[in-house]
Design brief:
about 60 residues; Ribosomal Protein L24e, Chain: T; about 10% helix
């Protein structure tokens, strides 16, 4: 499964790692995702959610 937030769609970003000598190589920034038991459409499901969505209250966590 992809590294994508199920709520906001945040995903990995590509860029360059640049050293002090300006050597350039590829790198990736990954979102801070957690697998959470959440209530989705009245049912409990496991979804990948970024921490910003969890902190802002966009996710209703399910009690196990």
């Amino acid at each position: 499964m992809a590294q994508v937030c199920a709520i906001c769609g945040k995903r990995s970003l590509n860029g360059n790692r640049i050293s002090h000598a300006h050597n350039v190589s590829k790198r990736k920034w990954k979102p801070n995702l957690h697998v959470v038991h959440a209530v989705v459409a009245g049912q409990t499901k496991r979804i990948k959610v970024c921490t910003r969505c969890m902190r802002s209250g966009k996710v209703l966590k399910a009690s196990r």
